[in-house]
């Protein structure tokens, strides 16, 4: 039986060997060029082509050092800077790593074997991307070797380590978090719940609205939106499709209103930094079936009334007062009582086409 982690070491060594023949030539050529110069200097604003060549040379040198260690029976060891406040300074006005703070990553434990194997495989991928000047995504790298990486976070961690090893930024590695997206949507519908989002997809909502001359883009933050989701909406609204109409579909309760407020005005947590609100987002809470509101929910509604952004949304304010008065709330799923497709074919169809002259 093979020792734990041995197959992953094999993966790493295979990646090294496949890269070595091409990489060795590149490395020797680079060393010859450097030797011909007395004081080789890399300009900060070097062209991307030169920078790619420089990064490939660094990868080559790193792989050669690993191969050399393995060839003499020594465990490879890589120095990677610690993520800590002690490892940086601000003498130049920006955070910079101190050369004196580093840690060694060797193959002393199974955990490190896995990490090393992942690093070697991703180095091979990055080298290939830089050579062909192509872009890949974290997701694509993960799905090409699910067994090795286990989850996408591990791919991101390895890319973080490689950026440190090569003294470059993540974007220089030609690997992005997501692929670039182009859209001609004229309506964006932000859905609070993933279950409703999936239901609309299952009912082929995009084709349904396309037949109504509405080019719809569906987005969900799966509840309270994270920063990435809000950044996406902000970019769509201000850069990609500024003429599009934006709607948010949530439950008619305190949580749904809060989520709509975050999309429209940003969050309190991010108030100190650039906030990613989209004030033009439309929102309305009018499902027909009501649920009795709890005392805690009533308090949340009262807290919403004093939110600063409520002053800018008188209609929202009136809706909250109505919920308080009726002591009720309503979920999106309540519309299913009128038919399985009522939400899409009647409620959203009327709202997105502006038939009722009201916000969503």
From TrEMBL:
E.C. number: 5.6.2.2
PROSITE patterns per UniProt: TOPO_IIB
EC category name: isomerase
GO molecular function: ATP binding; DNA binding; DNA topoisomerase type II (double strand cut, ATP-hydrolyzing) activity; metal ion binding
GO terms for cellular component: nuclear chromosome
InterPro entries membership: Spo11/TopoVI_A, Spo11/TopoVI_A_N, Spo11/TopoVI_A_sf, TOPRIM_Topo6A/Spo11
Requisite cofactors: Mg(2+)
Domain Spo11/DNA topoisomerase VI subunit A N-terminal intervals: 115-175
Residue numbers annotated as active site: 143
UniProt domain Topoisomerase 6 subunit A/Spo11 TOPRIM: residue ranges: 187-352
Gene Ontology terms: biological process: meiotic DNA double-strand break formation; meiotic DNA double-strand break processing; reciprocal meiotic recombination
Keywords: DNA-binding, Isomerase, Magnesium, Metal-binding, Topoisomerase
Catalytic activity: ATP-dependent breakage, passage and rejoining of double-stranded DNA
Alphabetized Pfam families for the sequence: TOP6A-Spo11_Toprim, TP6A_N
Family: Belongs to the TOP6A family.
Annotated protein name in UniProt: DNA topoisomerase (ATP-hydrolyzing)
Lineage, top ranks: Eukaryota, Metazoa, Ecdysozoa, Arthropoda, Chelicerata
Name of encoding gene: LOC100906980
